[in-house]
Amino acid sequence: MAPSHVLKCCQKVLAWVPVAFIALVVAWSYYAYVVELCVFTISSTAEKVVYLVVFHLSFVMFVWSYGKTIFTSPATPSNEFCLSKADKEQYEKEERPESQQEILRRAAKDLPIYTTTASRAIRYCDRCQLIKPDRCHHCSACDVCVLKMDHHCPWVNNCVGFSNYKFFLLFLMYSLLYCLFVAATVLQYFIKFWTNELPDTHAKFHVLFLFFVAAMFFISILSLFSYHCWLVGKNRSTIETFRAPTFRNGPDKNGFSLGCSKNLREVFGDEKKYWLLPIFTSLGDGCNFPTRLVIMDPEQLGVSSQNEPAKSSVANQSFPTRPLSESQNRLLSSDCQWVETGPEEENGKESDAKWNSEMKHCLEEELLKCLFLNHILVSHVLLFRKLPVHEEGRVF
């Protein structure tokens, strides 16, 4: 017990090494830019003031978002996803996977779950002993199930998921702007030191090295930030990109995509004035998400007038904070699951049959109208051909 405990403590300490490295680099860059460049190198007072004001704005936003990413605890599933004491004891006693799945299906019947494993089984975490919500995964480094887990980032020593994904994106954006501003403003003095236009002072090393470090981090962060911007537009996580979530109709990487604008609002919230601030404004509770398989994706809708009602319902779709009803939770059902039919499902089937009947009746009416207009057109053409024609081509 003691060696394993010591090993875990050492792992926790070593996990902070990348964060400490970033903190030291940022602290040194602050000293190099403010003291060595602005105080000792730049002679123009106006240039100093402008550089220092913009630098400190980008620095504060960068440090703020970085701190929020590090110290925001990963969101975990609520208690409703945990098995009851009786179900847990029965699950542990059962040895057959089929019997265990039956227990999980009963427990997940009223939960807002639309995804399964690749083998159509309920996603269950034996480590945390709970049914995994959609987009939730177990992090071996944090040893918890994380809601909408994207990845575990060693540079922040934390899981990036539902609770801090917005902070992580802002951290990438502000670090990118920070490096870009530092590299752009240092460049002219880098060239002057390199070509010996400025005398060799203790500031030379800091200015030269500051430019290389800022340019290197800018290039590396740019690719990562671009990739996550693409993920936000598609409403995917890094895990879902490499392993698509499995719905009733099979794996679908775009299963949670609601259109670019709604995907953006899902992460940054409805109020645009808070988008650039590292304040939590993401929509939903992290346990359930709208899906284009239950609520049609506006990007997948056709241009015909028959799809207009569906499009308007998608535009007004709110992000639920409570479990959806049984009649909406159909993506877990299959031919061998939940054979019983409740009254809500019967009502849903009756309404679907009524809607199909009305649509069929409308299509038949439209077809009859087209045939009638076609008949009138043909009759007029035949009548026109029988009329006498004048030499100049006019009809008498």
Automatic annotation (TrEMBL):
The chain crosses the membrane at residues 13-33, 49-67, 167-191, 203-227. The keyword DNA damage does not apply. Its EC number is 2.3.1.225. It is a multi-pass membrane protein. One of its GO terms (molecular function) is protein-cysteine S-palmitoyltransferase activity. Residues 122-242 form the Palmitoyltransferase DHHC domain. It holds the Pfam family DHHC. The DHHC domain is required for palmitoyltransferase activity. PANTHER family: PALMITOYLTRANSFERASE ZDHHC16. Belongs to the DHHC palmitoyltransferase family. This is Palmitoyltransferase. It comes from Lamprotornis superbus.
